[in-house]
Design a protein that fits this description.
alpha/beta, Peroxisomal Thiolase, Chain A, domain 1, 5-stranded mixed sheet, 4-stranded mixed sheet, 11 helices, 13 strands, 33% helix, binds oxa(dethia)-CoA
């Protein structure tokens, strides 16, 4: 464990600093045994192949925006409890399951949080969405365009899964997490640094919802129900996830001036416990440096990293002074990572 940022981190640059953290999952829970009652699967298969024991799902009429508002409210409360202001002058929402295809969900989230006429927009980068959103929000702060940005990751994949697809239904769950960023200095605990982002659009077919966009609509073909569902080619995605996340953690650590072995906690997108174990192996790090809550929530897409952060901080697995790298991978394909020294911030 390290107590401070390295001395070469710079002193006067304006940087985005984590000031609050909030998390929220809907009340509905589906256990593996409940899935096994309606699909050809078993608790044993799901646990051994993914590490997942249960997942949360929205109730009828509940939306991604509803979850985002709850997580956002908690991140603002967390910032206030840690001595900061309960305000933001921009809201950036990472999601692939917006309340409607158009407009973005973020403006409504900002209004419902009582933030007034602040800048608000969505980011679409599937399971990398939260890392992309942190990167863009950090840039809003470093450019001087914003002082405080509420960054939310929220998804309700239960609303786009094929009810008959045992693989995706076993993996995905709903949830939301949020971080409040404020302007600060790179030498402070909580300063976001070492951002690395990437994509490979030649593999966009591996994770997709085929319908609902301009490609099929312009072809004039009648909409097929199946095209509205999320599809994932599990095997090839697995290999890509391991390689891209291991490479991203390495790149981010190098950018931060940290040896990989000096990273205290790696908070990966919670895709699959076997993926986390394989990334740990590639990085030659003990798997207990990778906080995990996948057993309780499954893969919550853009919410996955802030939910894992909140659970780890709540349980004391993630402590102030830890050198942390956050890393996401998902549809697009997209991936990314960044790092920080964990600040004195308690989640709400
Ligand atoms: O979040 C974005 C990034 N996403 C990821 O990184 C996900 C990466 N992929 C994965 O995590 C895994 O590929 C899955 C969990 C999705 C699937 O696990 P797998 O070990 O790769 O299984 P598979 O797709 O290769 O399927 C193996 C067998 C198949 O049966 P056959 O053809 O061998 O008879 C599947 O039909 O397991 C079967 N299967 C199941 N059996 C029982 C697939 N899903 C289930 C299930 N229960 N839920």
């Amino acid at each position: 464990m390290q107590d401070a940022q390295p001395a070469d981190a710079g002193t006067r640059e304006r940087t985005a600093v984590v000031a609050g953290l909030g998390a929220w999952v809907p009340h509905g829970v589906v256990t593996n045994d409940e899935l096994a009652r309606v699909l050809d699967t078993s608790d044993e298969w799901i646990r051994s192949r993914t590490g997942i024991g249960r997942r949360h799902v929205v109730s009828p009429g509940e939306s991604t925006g509803d979850l985002a508002v709850e997580a956002g409210r908690r991140a603002l409360a967390s910032a206030a409890a840690n001595g900061g202001d309960r305000t933001a002058d921009a809201v950036v929402l990472a999601t692939s399951t917006p309340d409607r295809p158009c407009p973005a969900t973020a403006p409504e989230v900002a209004s419902r949080l009582g933030l007034g006429g602040v800048a608000a927009f969505d980011i679409s980068a599937v399971c990398s969405g939260f890392v992309y959103a942190l990167g863009v929000s950090g840039a809003l702060i470093t450019s001087g365009a914003a002082e405080r940005v509420l960054v939310v990751g929220a998804d309700t994949f239960s609303t786009i899964l094929d009810p008959g697809d045992r693989t995706t239904r076993a993996v995905f769950g709903d949830g939301a997490g949020a971080v409040l960023l404020r302007a600060g200095q790179p030498t402070e605990r909580g300063a976001l640094r070492g951002l690395t982002l990437g994509s490979d659009g030649t593999r966009s077919d591996l994770i997709q919802v085929p319908g609902g966009g301009s490609r099929l609509r312009s072809a004039g073909e009648p909409a097929r129900d199946a095209d509205a569902y999320f599809t994932m080619a599990g095997r090839p995605v697995f290999g890509q996830a391991v390689r891209r996340m291991a490479d991203s953690v390495r790149a981010s650590a190098a950018e931060l001036g940290w040896a990989v072995s000096d990273v205290d906690r790696v908070v990966l997108h919670q895709a699959n416990a076997r993926i986390t174990a394989a990334v740990a192996d590639r990085l030659d790090l003990p798997v207990d440096r990778f906080p995990s809550n996948i057993g309780q929530v499954g893969n919550t897409v853009a919410a996955s990293i802030p939910l894992a952060l909140a659970d780890a901080a709540q349980e004391g697995v993630l402590r102030p002074g830890h050198r942390v790298v956050l890393c996401g991978f998902g549809g697009g394909l997209t991936w990314g990572a960044l790092g920080l020294v964990w600040p004195q911030v308690k989640p709400v």
